[in-house]
Amino acid sequence: MQLPTHLLPVLVLLSAQPLGRALVPGPCKSPIETQCNFLCDCTDCSDEAQCGYSRASPGLGTPVTCDFEQDNCGWQDISTSGYRWVRDRARAQPEGPVAHTDHTQGTDLGWYMGVGTHRGTEAAVAALRSPVLREAGPTCELRLWYHAVSGDVAGLQLELTHSAETLTLWQSSGPWSSGWQELAVTTGRIPGDFRVTFSATRNATHKGAVALDDVEFWDCGLPTPQASCALAHHRCRNAACIEPHQLCDGEDNCGDRSDEDPLTCSHHTGTNFETGLGLWSHTEGPAWNLSTSGPKGSAWPRRDHSRNSAQGSFLVSTAKPGNPAVLLSPQLQASGSRNCSLIFYHYLHGSKDAHLELLLWMQGPGAPQAPVLLRHRHGELGAAWVRDQVDIRSAHPFRILLTGETGPGGIVGLDDLILSDHCTVIPETSACDPPNPTSPVGAPLSPQSSLQGSCEPGQLACGDLCVPPEQLCDFQPQCAQGEDERECGTTDFEAAAAGGWQDSSIGRLQWGRQEAQGIRATAGHFLSLQRAWGQLRAEARALTPVLGPSGPHCELHLAYYFHSHPRGFLALALVESGSRELVWQAPGDSSGAWTVVRVLLGAHRRPFQLELVALVDVEAPGLQGAGIDNVTMRDCSPTVTTETDREVTCNFEWGMCGWHLGHLTDVHWRRVESHSSGNDHTTGQGFFMLLDPAEPPARGRHANLLTGPQVPAVPEQCLSFWFQLHGPRIGTLRLAMQRDGEEEIQLWSGSGTHGNRWHQAWATLRHQLGPSSKYQLLFQGLRDGYDGIMALDDVTVRPGTCPAPQRCSFEESTCSFSTGGQGLWKRQNSASGTATKGPWADHTTETAQGHYMIVATSPDMLPQGHVASLTSEEHQPLLHPTCLTFWYHLSLRSPGTLRVRVEEGRQHQTLSISEHGGPAWRLGSMDVWAEQAWKVVFEAVAAGVEHSYVALDDILLQDGPCPQPGSCDFESGLCGWSQVAWPGLGGYSWDWSSGATPSRYSQPAMDHTLGTETGHFAFFETSVLGSGGRAAWLRSEPLPATKASCLRFWYHMGFPEHFYKGELRVLLVSTRGQLVAWAQGGQLRHQWLEAQVEVVSSEEFQVVFEATLSGQPVQGPIALDDIEYLPRQHCQWPAPSPEDTAVPMSVAAAVSGALVFLTLLVLLGLTGWCWLRKGGGWPFWRNRHSAAPGFDNILFNADQVTLPAAVTGDP
User: Residue 615: how many CA atoms within 13 Å on its side-chain side?
Assistant: First the structure.
């Protein structure tokens, strides 16, 4: 039960208390007994380093944390098999990470401790143990986040070992929800040294992938010695100070047990149930049972409170609702003007239907007949012993009644009942029957407490209806008077039921109904923040009953006041599937006046709950406080519709039209206005939909933007939209359609960067008309990349089919290509095990999962001379010359001829490709001129060769004429150059932009081709590489073997002057290996520079531009423009200019430079001689793969690469 991540700093600051112990100036050597005790004894907190956390607590009440971002914080793997814990992150495991993101950052850049899938068959345990920790206080709580997939792990366990015993703090065998799950356990007071161990168990059927992150120790430090104590505070023997209510409360708050000294507490009467019930007694009916640690895996307490031991005793009740167990105190004298206080520790866990009530039963003449309810706890409070205190003033003798009941699987527990010195026991003279514990006075404040009649337990009776629990609070009334929706969050707090809101606080603050008074409100009641007796978490929490399902228009309206200066917060969270999402937070500068707000909740599955969370600095001067009133849930039924729901066409200028956010994950699209790093498409200054996959605190896998149910008016519609996919490692954008009762239909998808510009895409919607043929549209942004943005704008729907798309990767569909009557062309991937043998990977994703089109040209499938056609839909007329590019793959055995024909009426343009195949995809291109509508036809003409095929992928139309192979000015795109987002290099891609286009990444102000800010270039921002990113590749199409060719290009680099970090390299890559042909480090010149590389190769190869770092990340772009590959031409080296040769310098500088140069020559000579003596090659060689013999004889000469004649002969 953790606050949203960005609220935690507020809580940390608020809970901090000043240290009384003087910090030792560093460096310091603290005694061993003060190390790892959750407190800083040294100024630099070095005494708390590597103690299972990386940031030590600056004071009491603040957490010490390990997020594993820098190191393992002292946690060690103590496993005895190959099933072991390692510090890891998702990006380092491209084949299947333990978790796709860490919990701290919510991206694959962050680190966690993980134990991967183990291939063995024997059962094994992976154990991760903390360093030695010391002296945990009684309020100590351990919180962590774990990631486990049901079916992967046999069991998880958290243990604490100290000198006396090993305590099982938590144990589970699942099932576990998807994603990161929070675990919070209290340790209780642990004197001396102890360790914590988190372990995972695997067996033959459970392979055991688990991850652990964000380990936090909360409120674990003991109080430190003080020179003096505040007024009314108790001074311990060790000079620490504690609050008055902590004296004689059954907990070692001082740390030396002096606050629980028998002499000091001699007038208190405590019952710890170690030897029985003491002064307390049972009534007839269900009983409170004495117990010790219960069955493993149940909600039973694993320790008592008195001894914090599995051998300790306590009381438990499993009484069913409506028939509670009752514990009765002895008869006590009238307290008069003094308080008789009862301190007690309770435990409610395992059921949301658990109830614990404390009632005052006054006796004697004139006393009320019915018991008075003094305290009521309800619901799930976690596996913890929670402190409470009741102060009683009674003019009559009285007894105290404690009643407990719970739902299936739940436990209500009691321990350490302590009566204060003003509670005087009356000797028993006569017995009398206790009141009926099921009387309405003590009834829980929930809708289930209404009259049941003849209905089953848990059902609500209204008239002749019995409403089952799953239909309560579902925003669709079943009862005529709406009784089933009455206590479901909507309330003005005038009724005691409070709209079903229940306080679930376990700390020093709580939510409670209060009558309005003073200047803040008029007459009536509201929900206010109040002091409480709990000892655990500081914040106050209140929950609604289980709600849902809700519709997309669901809103919450409420009035609030909030004032906590200078620290504090008031927030509303949505609790769903074990996780919390912040949906609203009061501004930090709230004045304290009542304010009305509206909060969009949206569509959620059942069950979900709303939770109010607040914290104020009650010790600060002034009117510190928070209140809630007039809560209203509006339009929450899933059946609620509005006029705008049918507006699919939308430019987002005035709202979201019929589109709404999906709230099933915590990742959301946002409607934003044009800003410095992004403009909309409609006007350049308006609104658009944006998704930043790295925006905290999201942890979900995707964000959804969807319509409500739509009724089609025509059989075919064309949906067009404009999108952006921009960034060095952006994920996937998908468009899908969902028909009622059918599986989702994938219409379109795009992955990776498409350049820093808006692109248009189309998808044809095909419908079966009818009153029940409803459909929904869904744009889904996948978080499978975290550096970049996704954006949507100008969505339009019109009748009819769409024109042929300008881009097709075949990942989602055939893009409406027609395969003719024979249907010989097929869409497939190599991972599916289909019959047609083809390339092992597609061109788009370069994986076996990627799709492409293929036709088998073997004689049994396509006889020699026969033709298999693949025909596009009709394209619109072209206003400008256009380049049609496509990637093709031919089998090694000649499949025949691939003909590409552009049909414009009776005019045809034809390109024929007939060559031997190879291992690589090759680029084909042809210039297209078409003043009328036109189609493109791909024809495979078979040669009659067995086991042959032709494959196609990544068909693209780009403005402008086709460039020469290996050349590009980047004005229309990347030409034939491909971004290679290889996982082994970090998964980064080069991008494409212009200086005038807003971008969040630094880039050149103008290009080289046009010399203006509207010109385009390829670029890469090296700062995104991070500590684990290696490089980004920009790769050419395959180029034929050559005896002499020249590669010219212009590059732009800009790094801070004293941070020589970035580097641009030119690699030559072939089947025989790769080498560095040219390299240049970063420099602060901010201008375009020309470079040339002369290349010779005896086989087909590719040129790769690699952007990389040689040190820690630093902001600086590397850009490329005007790449020109000149086959069969030597580079023309320009003559040195006067500026290059006539550089003025002083004589002293010249002499010094000459001496340095001569010294370097001598050193280089000696180094080379030693290297040769050892049989090595020249150290300038850069052959990254030792298994690349084809490049062993490469020699370097300035910017030229020359292959000796012995290896450059024609094949």
Answer: 21
